[in-house]
Amino acid sequence: MEINFEFLRHQLIGNDVFCTTPYGKRLITYADYTASGKTLGFIERYLIDIQKVYANTHTDDSYTGKTMTDLLHKAEQKIKSCVGANKNHHIISVGSGSTGAITRLCKILGLYLTPGLKYNIDQHLKQNNNRYDADIIKNIFEKMTDSKPVIFVSPYEHHSNYLIWIESFAEVVEITLNNNGMFNYTDLEQKLQDPRYKNRIKIGSFSAASNITGIKTDVHKVAKIMHKNNGLAFFDYAASAPYVKININKDNDEHLDAVFISPHKFVGGPGSSGILIFNKNLYSNLIPPTVAAGGTVDFVSPYCYEFMKDVEAREKAGTPGILQTLKASLAFELKNEIGTERIEKIEKYYIQKVINRLRKHNNIDILGPLDPSKRIAILSFNIRHNNKKLHHKFVTTLLNDLFGIQSRAGCACAGPYGHRLLGITKETSMIIRDATKDGLHSLKPGFVRVNFHFLIEEYEVNFIISAIEFIASYGYLFLNRYSIDLKTGSWSYINAYKEPDSLVKQFGIHHSFDRLKKDVFEKSRPKKQELYKYYLTVANQESLKLKTEFKSNYKRFKKLPYESIRWFDFINQED
Question: Which residues form the Aminotransferase class V domain (predicted)?
Fold first, then answer.
């Protein structure tokens, strides 16, 4: 059965919601699936039905306990099946996304060092006057450093697949980009064969796709190179898992040793757990589980204790995320029912259309390689103005206020890659760091990110393109109407009454009682195309007004070092 997209669109929770802006109410158009997916009515209803028999797991003695235990195991098996995993793989639901999955594997491998432990060792060495002890400890660490594992990462890693390894007991080596801005497979081979890393554990931990530019890594090619050089191949699928096929068990040397996944980014997935799936050979039962607690033991007495032998059980300390794992499973299964070929065909068409139009605008800088076949449907861009740029947070604010488009501004938690894409030198970076330490976050560089999800319709794609083109042409005129908070970088409409959002203001148990009076799944069907046309008309009318009154009275930063690197213009600032 082919999944009907019109049915899925109508089941999306929130696609009929309006937000209030300085220009009136705007229908929310969600273009931020890269950060998180949207929930689906039928999945939420199904989970509510399951909750009628909800109970804790860890028992087979009651109907509810056995049912939930069986459901949890079935959900885990379904997830494994969706990525080609088998009896040779373990699955662990952990945290809320890939970050938890990476951290857990880092602990399993014995590479995770808690910040508190590192601090305490450092303090002990400083306070210990016994030079002999200090020298022994220092000598031990130096010997361990010479043989510690090497983690190879790409230049476009999310902070979670970079900083976790940087802070671990491992040496991190970055692979370069090639001349086309893509993963440099030759550089990987050369660095793996570097004599310095001979006889050391070699691990490649790479993003399957960038969450900034959407450029894809050929994961099976990388895996083959890693295995050829006696290494392990891990992949962070946080950005791409909702859109591409994952085959962890491909034949020969192209298999993947571990994958990290964020199901909350799937359609239907928000609220689900993070997923770690890895080859069973990576786990040693000779050491305790990563968390020694209830649910990980077969026997505990005042005299001794025994941990479980079952890896998936011993890594479920305490109460597992039962509903979270069930939801992750349903999101995975829905993606597979839709079909990755179908998803990729739609998104390739969308991103090609978007790039072909936006690249023609002189004020729009699209980040990363422009070949749509080399990327998933993520687009990050900046808008030029007066040899500078419009602040990315200003652009996202205009997209929201004028058009209701939900985008994201910043560095997308991939700062090193952002530095390269934006051409930021070390000297400039240090000044930006000083400004940030001074509380001036507005100087932090970044970009605007949108993505073109397979569930949005082509007229919605056209609307988002038109909105970006409008801001690229006329966005600077609105600088007179907005002020910037130099501390946060946030922009707001001048003299607008900042009433707290009703949802935030009213949050609490008493307002949950109000939901008894209505069907929370009831939906309207806004006439989107008419609304989009109206929003563009209003925006053009506003720009015509502003043209007659625009004054470029641009302000400056007080400190000369900060002013010397100012990359955006502003006219009004908040006190």
Answer: 139-421
